[in-house]
Hints:
The structure holds two protein chains of two kinds.
Chain A: E1 2-8, H1 13-22, E2 29-35, E3 42-46, E4 49-53, E5 56-65, H2 70-81, E6 89-95
Helix pairs in contact in A: 1-2
Chain B: H1 2-16, H2 18-23, H3 30-57, H4 63-90, E1 93-94, E2 98-99, H5 123-145, H6 151-174, H7 179-183, H8 191-209, H9 225-244, H10 252-280, H11 285-299, H12 308-333, H13 341-359, H14 380-408, H15 415-420, H16 422-427
Antiparallel strand pairs in B: 1-2
Keywords (chain B): Ammonia transport, Cell membrane, Membrane, Signal, Transmembrane, Transmembrane helix, Transport
GO cellular component, one term (chain B): plasma membrane
Pfam families (chain B): Ammonium_transp
Amino acid sequence: MKKIEAIVRPERLEAVKEALGKFGIHGMTVSQVMGCGTQKGRTEVYRGHEYSINLLPKVKIEIVLRDQEVEKVIEVIAAAARTGQAGDGKIFVCPAENAVRVRTGEQGDAAV
Amino acid sequence: MKRFLFTGLFALFLSLIPGVAWAATATVDTGDTAWVLASTALVMLMTPGLALFYGGMVRKQNVLNTIMLSFIVLGLVSVQWVLCGYSLAFGPDQGHVIGGLSWLGLKGVGLEPNADYAGTIPHQAFMAFQLMFAIITVALISGAVVERMRFPAFLAFALLWTTLVYDPLAHWVWGVGGWLRNLGALDFAGGTVVHISSGVSALVAALVLGRRRGYGAEPMLPHNLPLTVLGAALLWFGWFGFNAGSALAANGLAASAFVVTNTAAAAAALSWVLAEWLHHGKPTVLGAASGCVAGLVAITPASGFVGPLPAVVIGLVAGVICYLAVAVLKPRLGYDDALDAFGVHGVGGTWGALATGLFASKAINAAGADGLFFGNPAQLGPQAVGVVATWVFAALATFVILKVVGLFTPLRAADEEETLGLDLTQHGEEAYRGLAL
């Protein structure tokens, strides 16, 4: 099992969800997060004062998958989240030791 | 017989209602009274509008405290005004500097008109209208001290300031026998009394309190600009009561004040946005909201004395100079007037008071005076005296009041309280539960 953490633009969330749905992935955890990377923030102006905003709002999507699904899901998310501009986000893959379905007590791949 | 009996009983019933007794007298005009009461309600709405205007501009951990500083003043000054404030401001003159104490608790302030102030509306209607001005004036000052002033200290300051600064100033300018009124200084709806006094006091309060933790080193951004725009819109709306209501009658002067109020607000919104567009490359919504308020401030003293074209000039200039005050002057001098109460109200009010001496015309208001551009440069004299006197008095009195309050309770939140935010530490409440960012 693997856990995918995809950090993407908030405005691409719906496209990513739709693409994952077509691939048969419906379970996910989504959080609003702030982050910075190569996009390097932006400048905002309030009453004539300029502020550099380094942390930008992003969305983090967490999905736990069977090993064989990982590569394809990464492709699906990357394709749906991509705009081609700096700030499109990153996808991290982490090992997941186990999963437990709370309702039934199933564990491992059966619980994913 | 039955009809006769019914009519008689009805007449007896009417005679028992106090309102009907005064309505039967010839001096109260129902149209004037309706307009002034409606205006009173409009001006009342400005203070919660100000709360939203200010509330949207602070960081989210301080929005409730910022709103509270305006909202609690509605309670505090309403009671103070009835107990002593109205008497001190408008009561029988004492040495041309303050009203007497004979109207304490509104004793003698009844339902008959007081011809000295407004001959066609109940005296209590005039009192209530003036109350709303007293409320918003002290609330305006809070814009300079938000995000760091402790609530108990603000309460004490607000009570003392409104009693020791606002009430005497209102008497100087509007009270019968007040020395600025006798001097011929024109202030139709409170440019000096409301805006210069609150703006200058705000600057002094910002200096006495010191800058917020991290000011200049970390961004302190508005957390909800739609709230601010809603507040600005409510201010603009309520300002029609503020200025057009100051005619104290439903007449042509009220209509004129209404028109110039809207015109100046519109012109200043445009010029502020244009100034920042040229200066920083973007026309911002906050700029449009700030600009309209600057225009409303500037036209206030002049609103009963100038025509529409001078209103355009007053508004255009107000938008630019207030923008320069907050975008250029403030960073150069380094003071932390958090929400620019001085930059908008102090600077805009000063411009408006002087502009009244430039553009006033007896053709608009025969009870006023001509200004410089209408053949009477001498009018600039009393206007300047009013400005200087208000600056000096408000600044000194605010400094002393804050120092005295500081002897009894700390003015500033502790570092940890400021970091956590004043909503939690002063009120035990959160505006947006569960939002960490």
